Amino acid sequence: MKPLVIAGKTFHSRLFTGTGKFSSNALMADAIAHSGSELVTVALKRVDLDTPHDDLLDHLNLPGVNLLPNTSGVRTAKEAVFAAQMAREALHTNWVKLEIHPDARYLMPDPVETLKATEELVKQGFVVMPYIHADPVLCKRLEEAGAAVVMPLGAPIGSNSGLITREFLRIIIEQSNIPVVVDAGIGRPSHAADAMEMGADAVLVNTAIAAAANPVAMAEAFKMAVESGRRAYEAGLPGISNKAHATSPLTAFLD
Amino acid sequence: MKPLVIAGKTFHSRLFTGTGKFSSNALMADAIAHSGSELVTVALKRVDLDTPHDDLLDHLNLPGVNLLPNTSGVRTAKEAVFAAQMAREALHTNWVKLEIHPDARYLMPDPVETLKATEELVKQGFVVMPYIHADPVLCKRLEEAGAAVVMPLGAPIGSNSGLITREFLRIIIEQSNIPVVVDAGIGRPSHAADAMEMGADAVLVNTAIAAAANPVAMAEAFKMAVESGRRAYEAGLPGISNKAHATSPLTAFLD
Amino acid sequence: MKPLVIAGKTFHSRLFTGTGKFSSNALMADAIAHSGSELVTVALKRVDLDTPHDDLLDHLNLPGVNLLPNTSGVRTAKEAVFAAQMAREALHTNWVKLEIHPDARYLMPDPVETLKATEELVKQGFVVMPYIHADPVLCKRLEEAGAAVVMPLGAPIGSNSGLITREFLRIIIEQSNIPVVVDAGIGRPSHAADAMEMGADAVLVNTAIAAAANPVAMAEAFKMAVESGRRAYEAGLPGISNKAHATSPLTAFLD
Amino acid sequence: MKPLVIAGKTFHSRLFTGTGKFSSNALMADAIAHSGSELVTVALKRVDLDTPHDDLLDHLNLPGVNLLPNTSGVRTAKEAVFAAQMAREALHTNWVKLEIHPDARYLMPDPVETLKATEELVKQGFVVMPYIHADPVLCKRLEEAGAAVVMPLGAPIGSNSGLITREFLRIIIEQSNIPVVVDAGIGRPSHAADAMEMGADAVLVNTAIAAAANPVAMAEAFKMAVESGRRAYEAGLPGISNKAHATSPLTAFLD
Q1: For the domain that residue D154 is a member of, what is the CATH number?
Q2: For the residues C46-57, what does the mean pLDDT come to?
Q3: Count of domains observed in chain D
Q4: B45 is catalytic
Q5: CB < 8 Å to D246, chain B
Q6: What is the complex's ipTM, to 2 decimals?
Q7: Is residue A255 part of a domain?
Q8: pLDDT score of B238
Q9: Cα separations (Å) of A23 from A16, A204, D174?
Q10: 3-state secondary structure of A172
Q11: Does residue B100 sit within a domain?
Q12: Is A185 labeled as ligand-binding?
């Protein structure tokens, strides 16, 4: 399996995980270890910055695991930049997962504020990984703005619906010059394999592992699924042609 | 059927149509007449502005039909504003369908330039109808910017795939205070009925009518489908619950 | 719209309806009248055979409406034949909708008993309309056995899921020499239009009308949707190619 | 991972494979070895029964691999029984994969002849594994007839479409007392994982491996996907509820 490189750092696992919703920090650490994940998101708001030994961070002190602070909870570019700066100081990393979602009900990302924050954070030397709608043009603009990867959603967060944005992910993957990490909506290992088979560079999975009856076993299942999907992609998949391409001439916009 | 009001104008038909891809202007006029459509998009670039009697426009001089110039072909907000101004002068209307698609291959709309152009055109007194990705947050921002409607896509333009953005359209319809017009991807009357059943306020259909073996009969079929879907919506649909809502607590973003 | 002929009888409506689940017989009659349906299923078990003026039947005494007794509730071919004979005597019709479903939970039809009953009922002079799984080979065998139509299911009964058996319906429609009536799963007018666009000869709708907040308006919506879908089919649909055909050589079974 | 038992034989791999469509027998053997498969179908018609050392069979002489002759090419129960008898003699096994498909174009299985052949072959002491449509009632009847497993199709053979019969597979899995092996339509590892996550006991994959650019790597990918899906199933999947159940009361058949 070809390793994945983001901002000069090499990853041997293409499964990124999260730290929310586990029933205990010990269980979280155990599941992450079994997932093989080398990049783990953590919400700044969940870290106690005033304590020398925060329990969450102590549990994440695992060999090979890099922390990816996220800006969860912010509603504007300005708030996001501030959160990223705080995270850099607290966690000693210039990597940031950018999440800006003004709407508390569906937690959909804001395309305009996300682009604005990306531009600013790149200027400030951050490695920016923006979570966004599966919008092909926005992905290109984030790439131009210096984002390290794009993280389009597969389905509404928490829906476990799989890749309902499939046709758009396909376009994004085809057009992107930076890694594409599918985030949100991945509820089962088969969804993760599906994304990898399509040519996604990595996936981010949190709830589906954390909320499983047995998170450790589920972490292993996801690990295998991601490797399986990647291997299949590299082995050359026969079969399902790109239906979005097949049916349409697309030579000119309609009027 | 409840009439639809956009910018103070009342529409009795919820089927908007286009003028591209017909084999002749006469056939186009016949199909539009049978569709019952009262709002018809026309690409500014296809109108000969120097001719006193442009053939396309002459054929669109139908009772009850309003023209909706579109900015098809532009790549930036600036170009879009210029195109809208030209259209206003040439076609004597301050309505404009805003289409900004920098990528010639998939014709996906640009969220950032579209918002910027909307803000500017609203200031200049236009009735702005932006064509966009099915992005719930972007729709809210366009609403706040003064757009008259939002026109999210159902599927990639020309794909005839139906409402593959269904889960996002649902959220958009639920949250919007301005009419939602589903544009692009509607390839069959059932797709149009589907959108109306979900609570969309109108649909825009072009290729599926223009490229049919019998465009006039197809126009009638779409007319009936839109009325059927709207009637069903008003009659109260039992059945398929909103699956996006059902499966997830969505109380907090994950980390 | 081309009329539909079944066993020598001509139908101008391609929407068949049912009589179950309405809140009153008066409302049922009103909805059926507005649906334009000329063929209406009625469960033998719901008719009071000992009463000269059964209330249900009195309400179904509508101009142009033909009754189609069904064998709902039977579990074997033998029971089905008996039920059909009773229905013929009670309702003075040799038409019968054959439903054999041994499982009370999902009400899935039994392919073997249905074929056996069809063979016997055809011998006894019945016009047999069997409700079955969307199984292409079974459909051919029923045709060979003398069934007047085949009625494959679109989705599990009561699921309102639309045409989840789409790929199989496509094959059935392509191969059938007798009318194909899609039954079960049609929950919204768009589903009915969808079936007609694919080339189904008719659809049967019951719950979706009966359980609507406004059954009369919903009946009208379905009437329009069926006509719309049929018109589109006759007008020649561009677009979505038969994906089942496209991806596979299918020259030989695998081993 | 819980082992799978069929007719008293224990399998540690839940991935069954086939022997068709490989570019050479050597490549086939290599791919099967890497798949970990312990049960491999072989078409009787492809074996040269008159040769002491058939090349295909020689290559299948792998440690841990059991042969599963299939009746591919037969059109009736009678032909199937004869083919099974020949296979038993030639390959020294009483296991048989029953495939009866009268239609050469879509290779859909015949439900009635398959049930008839199963009854006869069980009487004759065969371990019968019938390939069938995803028809829940037929599956129960095959179980009652003594089939060792049921092998419902996920999609038309060769379509690589994944589990388009999903809702019916779910019912079959829920109701079956014998192992359920999903056959046909599995075109990518994610499809195999999907089936296992739903609770299928095994999957059969042939073309997707044989026709891959790199069949050995693809075999490994499928091996991992099947293990991943099974592990996830055993770990307890949160999330997607059974939609077929959710939307409908299903208390009584409609009329």
Answers
A1: 3.20.20.70
A2: 72
A3: 1
A4: no
A5: 241, 246
A6: 0.90
A7: no
A8: 60
A9: 19, 19, 30
A10: helix
A11: yes
A12: yes
